[in-house]
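Bumping my old thread because nobody answered last time. Still need a sequence for this structure:
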């Protein structure tokens, strides 16, 4: 019975780790991309 509980605990730890990594990626890493990008202005005179 103890081995079953240990296996279950490890499975739940892995699931929680995956969920927290997913939420971290979604909240932190994707927010950096939301800033609008400006097109580079070319210098010099145009005719």
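Sorry it took so long. Here it is:
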């Amino acid at each position: 019975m103890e081995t079953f509980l240990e296996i279950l605990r490890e499975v739940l730890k892995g699931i929680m780790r995956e969920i927290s990594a997913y939420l971290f990626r979604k909240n932190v890493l994707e927010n950096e991309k939301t800033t609008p990008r400006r097109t580079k202005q070319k210098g010099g005179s145009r005719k």
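The chain has a mean pLDDT of 82. Let me know if any region looks off to you.
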